[in-house]
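Researcher: Please generate the 3D structure of the following complex. Treat every line as part of one assembly.
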Amino acid sequence: MGADYIIDSRQLPTERAQAIIDSLKPDASEVNFVSMIAFPKNGGTKLVKVQGMKGDFPFYGKINTEPSSASNSYQQSGGALVDATLMLQFNMKPGDSIKIGQLTLPIAGALKSMPGNSAVSSSVAPPVVIPYRFVESTELLQFGSRKEYQYFYKVSDTFNLERLEAKIEPALDLENADLDTHTSTTERLGKRYDNVGKFLNLAAFIALLLGCIGIASSVHIYIKEKLKAIAILKCMGASRLQSFLIFLIQIAGIGIVGGAIGSLIGVALQTVFPYLLKDFLPFTLEITISAQPILIGIFLGLFMSVLFALLPLLRTWYVSPLDVLRVDENGSQEPRNVRFLVFGIILVFLFLFSLWLLKDPLYALGFVGATVITFTLLAAVALGFIKTIKRFFPKHWSFTARQSLLNLFRPNNQTVVLVVAIGLGTFLISTLYFTKDILLAKTEVGQTTENANIIILDVQPDQKDAVAESITSKNLAVLNNMPLVTMRMESLNGRLVNEIRQDTTRQIKGWLLNHEFRTTYRDSLIASEELMAGEWVPYIKPGEPIVISISDNLANDSQLTVGDAVVFNVQGVLMETTVGSIRKVDWSQIQLNFTIVFPTGVLEDAPQFNVFTTMVPDEVSSAALQQDLVSKFPNVSIIDLRQIFTLVEDILDKVSWVINFMAFFSIFTGIIVLIGSVRTSKYQRIKESVLLRTLGAKNKQILQISAFEYLFLGLLGSLVGLLLALVSSLCLALFVFKEPFIPSGIPFLIFMPGITLLVLIIGLSNIQTVLRSSPLEVLRRES
Amino acid sequence: MSKILKITGLEKTYSSGNKQLTVLHDISFDVEQGQTFSIVGPSGSGKTTLLGLCAGLDQPNSGTVELCGQNLNILNEDQRAQLRNKEVGFIFQNFQLLPTLTALENVSVPLELQGAKNATSKSKSLLEKVGLGDRMHHYPSQLSGGEQQRVALARAFANSPSILFADEPTGNLDDETGEKVIQLLLELNKENGTTLVIITHDLELANRTQHILKLKGGKIVTNQPTPSREASQRNK
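Model: Done. Output below.
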């Protein structure tokens, strides 16, 4: 929108409104009005929106013109910036003249885009920007003429816009003026960007969880190796606290170093991101290195390492000096209540951290709950698997296959730990991938041939066939042919609009009381619509009560709901209607959307014009079509969406890049954790393999035993993780992102075999030591 | 009698940092088929290293090892493993049972590796022979040290080896249990006609074998038949 907030009024501001506007000291202002202009060069005329600009607007972003210098020079040189599409249609060049009322100005440049001007609104009446000082000389701003005044403000980052909104909006509304802040505009920009934010938070949360699994499993194996040493220390008189502290300090030190390294990587990325995103950020980012996030990073590294190492660390507290003589895996475990306490602390931390990231207690609880359920299900599946193998043990399989199966449920087996680690890793990675897909599918707007990029407005009923003929004769398809009927609201639920206008306590937004609605009629919903309430009525028979459908934003602003009565003034004829349904409209989809839709069978005979849409492949065919249409039908308006599409695609490409970056960053973390988890089983297997080797097992037999074991573990873990990811992604799609979910095949085709293969490779690399070293060397080391 | 083990000019050196540590210097000796042979010496004299080289568990830096008529130097790891599986049995000081397998499965392993069909029945009979018929389905962690070593004993004889290497077989056992294990070892050995190579620093045990090789600092100090009459009488 180019400013932090804007106050606009569709009339000369009232005294009270002007007082508010002046007290806030606007940094720039604009008056705009719709008027016919003439092109003296070829005698063409066109209805345009003239914008008289004063001050250095925009404060954010820039006016995009051709030549680019025109956006800066037009104020001084006294030229006009004319809509690029319009110039194309009338074959105008910079330097040619335009006549606005009594004023003739040279064209300084073609206006391609300008902050605050939306494609559709500006192209119904294409914009022509002139310096404010010339507005009066046009002599078009007479009493009673339709015009809009806008005042633009720039404020500091710390300025509280919400408080300003709460304070002055009611007063402005009463004066028929509106306040529009950049925060409210951002909210309106559509859920697409909101979802990107949610996704990035989810990716961060998942990266964190993966990190936590990594810490827990690494410390678990590290402490396991040290138990004997701890028992020796205790034999020599070390207290519980001393032995606990020895390892706690080590882990804390590693945590601090890890946190510091992570923060440094973060700082480095922070300097890289603005370069990648600079093209579509409407302002220049200043990179400053602030101590706070670095300290948070180091603190998180320290806190998470200690917290997730706590459970294995507790073994050092409870290990008995007797373990010097015999290390018993289950002999010196911490009491159950201590374990539950640690689990409880971990869960509370996870909840608080996700709450901090997601800013929504329900989502945070959902994520933590889903993780706990996944964890439990994975453990249950692993235990069920063990039970099943025991019960239906294939006694007739070969020795190596049986041996690998035996390893899955024998004492000291790694089945539950590895299935949970592999499964959780796969689950998180796949969930991230599926959700990334949900978001990226959403960003594919405008990239298919079905999407119109030319909209032709104001086509009169008697021109319909000829316009369609003009389009098809250029080998282009008519994608849409929609009727448009303009009307105003006469009364709402029996109260006249004039009466509501006078009511100072009204809840209804002022804009719709004066608004000329462009409505359409059709018998079905379109892709950008979704029924929220009521029933969609496709067709009305003559004489039946008229049932209409309104958009959700109109329902909010007008306080209308299903069953309410609305009387419209359709160009002099009053029409009684009832609200039959409320539609949720995705305004972020670039296509023709309507606040009010009538069923067929009602407006067919009302004064109307049509809107055609088509898709042109390139600039040349666009220019040919537009020049042809303008010359044959001077009354039609044409919107060329190609530039908008390019801009949107460019932005979405970069947003996709950020999504992919975060997703693959987390997936990479997951792979590292998986490697760590599988490596933990190394020590368990080496001794067994060496003994088998000593007893005469060949390389092939040892490899087969390990391969089968890790294949079973990898397949089971990844399959269960993937299935759980499907469920969780479906829930995320439905309840968080509120988007349809079509699962991608990639996780099944690549992740599942990939992760299984990875587990297999890591597992087999574990016993490389056995295959490469002499059995005696390993036996001595293991002894 | 034919020679089942022939060691010639054996040398073994380990690297420790930048230093080279020679553990065995120019070792040569032979072991006759069916003989009981002990290798004695103080800790660090190179006994276990020598046993490992004899059984093909490691490779010498120089010299040759000929086991059951095969030169181990020219065999690759798999071929050596196959030879061990067919001809060699092992008993270790710390039993070295597979912790994830039951007593019966531990004994079956050498037979399973051969693909033998009667693995379970043969293993059962061996476990009964060593007095563990009622502990077949116990895991090593559920057995005492003496019982574990008896399982190891049964495993060592499972593949009917031509030669059995025992590394300090009583080192982790009390005297009484140790004696029982040795009795059992010698009995099974006699019964199967197996050659027995025992590493020990227990001279009393060594004197019960037919031949003693003394090592010190990686060199042979003496290599001669056991002077003890008891040993010669016992093995007649």
